[in-house]
Amino acid sequence: MSLPASVQQLLEGKIDFEGQKTVDTLTRFVLVILTAVSFVVGCVLQSLRVTFGIYGLGVALLLLVVIPPWPMYNAHPVQWLPALEEKKTSAGKLELRPLAPGRFSAIAAANVLHPTPTPPSPST
Amino acid sequence: MHSIYSRVNNVSATLSSCLMVLLAAIAISSLFMGANPEGTLDIAQLRVFTGQTRRWPHQRQEFGFVNFNVTADLTPLFHWNTKQLFLYLEAEYTNAKGVKNEVVIWDRIVRRKEDAVINVVGKNKYPFREISSKFKNSEPAHFSLKYNLMPYVGALTFGEAARTETALDFPEAKEAVS
Predict the structure, then answer these.
(1) Are residues B42 and B20 in the same domain?
(2) Which residues are CB-contacts of B67 (< 8 A; sequence separation ≥ 6)?
(3) Which segments cross the bilayer (chain A) (predicted)?
(4) Domain range spanning residue B113?
(5) Reported ipTM exceeds the 0.90 cut
(6) Nearest to B1 among A23, A39, A59 (CB)
(7) Is A73 within 8 Å of chain B by CB?
């Protein structure tokens, strides 16, 4: 998409992992409880209008809480480790090391050409 | 859940599953709303005349004309999942050829609980004619008030609210009203 970066970021609405877990748990919890409550209340009052009224209101509130990227969902940003440097071997081959192990070590490890990481030496 | 799009996707997926469960629960709950309304149905008069329909202009047929009184209180049938009731008055008889017939001669749609108390003095809405052209030698007819409960969600259910106690014989066909 060729929208400006600020608009793209707005539309993307990124949230961190803790936030994603919160959103996931909240969605499931709220929807199941809402289904049960709206059914029981409607059955007691014998009105389908009440059932779907409660359901609709509940869903609207849930969407308001869950969809926009509220700041509380960005309260635990990922802690990236400091970047490792590239090091040229004596044979001239470029050695690429995992730059950001963090939580993504499994993914980043796939990019490693040399499996055993060696500590970086200060470049001259 | 990392972007708005994926959150909307996830929420709508869970939402539609929960909605399906809710609708199924509503449909199943109407099975437990057992109601058996009773009413009365009296046939004031049953007459048979010969006539013709526009469909078969050259075929003389016998038409039955029924005047009836029906009273029934169908309010127990209106629960939260009732959308409307379709009531129909049926004439059941076996004709001279031994074929069992059920003819709907009157119907009504009831949409609200307030309209569910039926007190009708009426005549047949629809032509009551015998396919084999003559009512002669048919067995006596029973009339019944049946209903079809149409829910918002779920299966259609049927029932009978009233029935004539004694069967009525078909009188001799007359040529004209006199």
Answers:
(1) no
(2) B43, B44, B45, B46, B121, B122, B123
(3) 26-45, 52-70
(4) 34-175
(5) no
(6) A23
(7) no
